[in-house]
Design brief:
The chain is mainly beta. Helices cover about 5% and strands about 45% of the residues. About 30% of the residues are buried.
Length: about 375
């Protein structure tokens, strides 16, 4: 059994273990091998410290600690010596070491760098189809619908998320190692709190939040029937829990820089709409300014009912995503047949592909996100 975990507890009985039990100590148990040599290796080579040893005249076990880890080198334990991975401050090559007790020592970055997979740009159309299997169970009672199943090679993820039954959300203060993350509220409301962004606030239908990289935040409460669209890059990224920070922090720093981006809370009720060609009007979500041009996002909606009026664009963007918020339309691209779309449908248009919208209903409305802005 590699890396046996030994838990020290007074009067321990297996059926009594629970989240509220009085556990006092946890140790990773390793075979001692030649205890003197193994101790010397862990202390002098790896920088652990000796905390306890017994017996004094002919030691058979030693307790060591370092880097938030407790080890018990036990001459009476003959299990697998296991693997110990040490997180380094710098990303540099290190040889794998083998301790005298045969424990393998690996070195890796303590904070792995953000990995951006190569973009595989292709047309993707995902329709709203509330059939079994389309929604997947997620964390904290949330349900997920995948809007970009191919992930564009792992570069992007977009999810339609809903919470059928609202109330307090079992969330913790956490943050993400990401390049981009945007949340748009479709229905209902959700109460959130963010690091250095004042008191908790409520995001309602039509509102949008840009979560900059590594900003600490927490979801507090949601209404029945909450639905949001969440778009992120890369598709797979690390989420870290921060057990030391309490939110709110008591500060409201609207211009604070988070890894080159600023926090955005866009509220629909205060938004300005600007006319666009082809019978459309547009509200900018403030993403381009806050990300320094990394991405741009907007909502567009019809202002006239003319089947001939459309919007045409030669997409030179790295990524162009749209979600139909309301109404119906036809999507025309130069690489595929026309596609009839309705509320709840989403699509990605490949880079460099010409597209236009046609036969749009009078209530047609779309959420759009582009990289770069």
């Amino acid at each position: 059994m590699p890396g046996l975990i030994r838990i020290m507890r007074k009067h321990l009985h297996m059926h009594e273990i629970s989240a509220g039990s009085d556990i006092e100590l946890a140790q990773c148990v390793l075979p001692a091998g030649d205890l003197a040599q193994t101790m010397r290796f862990f202390i002098e080579t790896l920088g652990f410290r000796l905390d306890a040893i017994m017996p004094a005249d002919e030691p058979r076990s030693a307790q060591l600690s370092g880097y938030g880890l407790r080890l018990l080198l036990d001459a009476e334990f003959h299990g697998d010596p296991g693997v110990l991975r040490l997180g380094m401050a710098r990303d540099e090559a290190h040889a794998v070491l083998v301790a005298p007790n045969r424990t393998q020592i690996e070195f890796a970055p303590a904070r792995p760098p953000l990995h951006m997979p190569p973009l595989q740009s292709r047309l993707c159309i995902q329709r709203m189809d509330d059939q079994p299997g389309n929604w997947k169970a997620g964390r904290a009672g949330m349900q997920y619908r995948d809007l970009i199943p191919d992930r564009q090679g792992g570069r992007f993820i977009a999810s339609h998320i809903r919470i059928p039954r609202g109330g307090p959300v079992g969330d913790n203060v956490h943050y993400h190692d990401i390049q981009l993350q945007l949340i748009y509220c479709l229905n209902g409301w959700v109460r959130l709190v963010y690091e250095d962004q004042g008191e908790p606030f409520v995001m309602r239908a039509g509102d949008c939040v840009l979560q900059p990289p590594q900003i600490r935040h927490r979801v507090l409460e949601a209404s029945d029937g909450l639905e949001v669209i969440e778009i992120g890059s890369p598709a797979e990224h690390m989420t870290w829990l921060d057990h030391r920070m309490d939110l709110p922090t008591g500060r409201h720093l609207t211009e604070r820089d988070y890894a080159g981006q600023r926090f955005v809370f866009h509220q629909q009720e205060h938004a300005r709409w600007s006319p666009q060609p082809g019978g459309w009007t547009r509200r900018d979500l403030g993403i381009a300014t806050a990300t320094g041009g990394l991405a741009g996002a907007c909502v567009i909606r019809r202002t006239v009912e003319e089947a001939a009026a459309d919007t045409s664009t030669l997409q030179q963007k790295q990524f162009a995503f749209a979600f139909v918020l309301a109404g119906s339309m036809q999507l025309h691209v130069d690489t595929a047949p026309a596609q009839a779309l309705a509320a709840g449908d989403a699509f990605v248009v490949p880079a460099g592909v010409q597209q236009h919208y046609a036969n749009c209903s009078a209530d047609c409305e779309l959420l759009q996100l582009f990289l770069p802005a």
